[in-house]
Amino acid sequence: MVVDPLLQDLEHLARAGDWDEALACVVGRLAADSGTLHLIGSDGALHLAAASASIPAFVLDTVRIVPVGKGMAGLAVARRQAVDACNIQTDASGDVRPGARATGLQGSIVVPLMRSGEAVGALGVANRSERTFTGEEQQLLLAIGRALAGGVSLAGPSKP
Predict the structure, then answer these.
(1) Residue 145 DSSP class
(2) Which of 49, 78, 102, 159 can pair with 19 through a Cys bridge, CB separation 3.0 to 4.6 Å?
């Protein structure tokens, strides 16, 4: 089995707690415009661990803490599967919250960070234009989620 070097790099960054660099690597690899990384805290909610610089401060305030089951990140964790939208501006599924729409982004996907069958966080990437992530991209993101999950402390995120 061929191991993607990115996955090894991400495992290393996650174990070092370098969530900003890990997120930047993922955003670059997926040719996305932005991303977020949430980790489950001791309170059971998702806490923002990293976000792309392009995300406005008022949006970051909205997504700093996300309840499991709410919004795309919370749903990805609750469902333990990818949640995506070709265009979050026009999505009518009910999966997209106003905070996500406020980014002005369109094509988006969020995957859970899975370790030993448990979700320990969520990773999201998005583009300014409509985008449907391919099955291959979804599988890569799920593998990335597993690689990142290895660095998540059982005590919760390393930074709020």
Answers:
(1) H
(2) 49
- Find the Cα–Cα–Cα–Cα dihedral 73, 74, 77, 79, rounded to 10°: -110
- Centre a 10 Å sphere on the Cβ of residue 8 and count the other Cβ atoms it contains: 11
Amino acid at 120: V
Q: Which helix (H) or strand (E) holds 45?
A: none
> SS3 breakdown of the chain: % helix, strand, coil, rounded to 5?
35, 20, 40
Q: What is the spatial distance between Cα 37 and Cα 152, in angstroms, rounded to a whole number?
A: 11
Q: Please write the tens of the pLDDT for every residue from 82-135.
A: 988 765 666 566 666 666 656 666 678 999 999 999 999 999 998 887 788 899
Of the chain, the end-to-end C-alpha distance in Å amounts to: 36
3-state secondary structure 86-97: CCCCCCCCCCCC
Rounded to an integer, what distance in angstroms lies between the CA atom of residue 19 and that of residue 5?
Answer: 17
Query: Global pTM?
Result: 0.86
- For the stretch 10-64, pLDDT in tens is 999 999 999 999 999 999 999 999 999 999 999 999 999 999 998 888 888 888 9
